[in-house]
Write a structure and sequence with these properties.
Elements lengths: L1 H6 L5 E6 L5 H13 L13 E3 L2 E3 L2 E6 L2 E7 L11 E6 L3
Antiparallel strand pairs: 1-4, 2-3, 5-6
Length: 94
Amino acid sequence: MLIGEAEAFNGPSLILGDFNTLSKRKAIETRNLLESHGYSTPFPTGTATWRGAGIRLHADWIFGRGLEITRWGVARPLNVSDHWPIWAEVNLSD
């Protein structure tokens, strides 16, 4: 599992991408799972990152551990996919 691979690394880490959390329940479960392993995300659960058939869902995430996410967002003006690009700026210094 990806979390196990990330936990084997002792430094700061990011887990990000399309998690296919296409329901509120799946978004909450995903957030709870990553948070139980020491990761955090600045994205509020329910932040729309995907659209299709007139609906908007929170499918994409950025989770970090051992670093500070200082700024983040969803680039909704970009229409390059059914997913809006998500981005984050991180601070690695303590």
